[in-house]
Every structure is written in structure tokens, then in C-alpha cells.
Amino acid sequence: MSEGEVLFRFENMGIWQRGAGLSRPLFTLADQLDQRHCHRFAEQLRAATLSITNNIAEGSGSVSDADFANFLNISRRSVFEVANILIILSREGPLSAAEVHPLLLQLAEQSRMTLAFMRNLKT
């Protein structure tokens, strides 16, 4: 196996690549929440963030487009879960709106891309 070789279908998918790119700043934010003693929120944020790419990856192994679309739907719902966590945390004070807003914009784009991908599967 050579470095940079793609072994799995999902690695070439823009929605997975975008979700994986979103993971780093969200994990960094979760680490900051841990430092602020908001451990439960940090744990939930990490789990929901992982669910975005995990479901894209898992769905890409499906044998039917309908099954794949179900996993993409779960991934998209996880995007909404992450957005909810960020919005609540910015309203309650541990995070500022300035910290959260750029991430919400990226999450909205992830949602749009996933929905478009789902629609393309069904046609």
C-alpha cells in the first residue's frame, strides 16, 4: 500500500472529506469545553461530530442506494445535532457567538451537500 492510496469509497466523497475537515475544529472546541469543565457537552459534541462521517462511511458500504440514503439521512441529522449543541452552548455562555458562527456556516454547507448527494442517489 502506498502513502495516499485510497482504500475505501468514502474517502473520495466530497461530503466525507468536508465532514472530516469539520471534525478538527469541532474536536478542538470539545477539548476547550473539557478545559472549562463542560465534560458532558464535550463528550456529546465529539460523538455527534464522529457520527457525521461515520454514517457516510458506513453507508458507502451499502449494497443499495436506498440503504446508503438512510445512512446519509442519519449523518445529516447528526449535523443538526452538532449545530444544536453549539447554539445552546453559545446561548448559555460557555462558548461565544463568534466561536460558533463560522462552524454553523460550515455545518449548514455540510447539510446542503449531504442532501444534494442523497437526492442524486435517488434519481
Features of the shown structure:
123 residues; mainly alpha; de novo design (two linked rop proteins); 4 helices
Question: Mind explaining what this structure looks like?
Answer:
By secondary structure, this protein is mostly helical. The protein is built from four helices and no strands. The protein has helices spanning 14-35, 39-60, 65-92, 97-122. Helix 2 runs antiparallel to helix 3 and helix 3 (65-92) packs antiparallel against helix 4. The longest helix is centred in the middle third of the chain and has 28 residues, at 65-92. It is globular, with a radius of gyration of 15 Å.
Percent range for helical residues? over 70%
Structural class: mainly alpha
The CATH homologous superfamily: 23S rRNA-intervening sequence
Biggest β-sheet description: none
Oligomer: single chain
Instruction: Kindly report how far apart the N and C termini lie.
Output: 35 Å
- The low-pLDDT segments are none
Rg estimate, integer Å: 15 Å
Architecture, CATH level 2? Up-down Bundle
Average pLDDT metric: 94
Shape: globular
Beta-strand residue percentage: under 5%
N-to-C SSE string, H for helix and E for strand = HHHH
CATH names the topology as: de novo design (two linked rop proteins)
**CATH class term:** Mainly Alpha
The count of strands amounts to 0
Give the domain tally.
1
Write the layout of secondary structure elements.
Elements: H1 14-35, H2 39-60, H3 65-92, H4 97-122
Helix pairs in contact: 1-2, 1-4, 2-3, 3-4
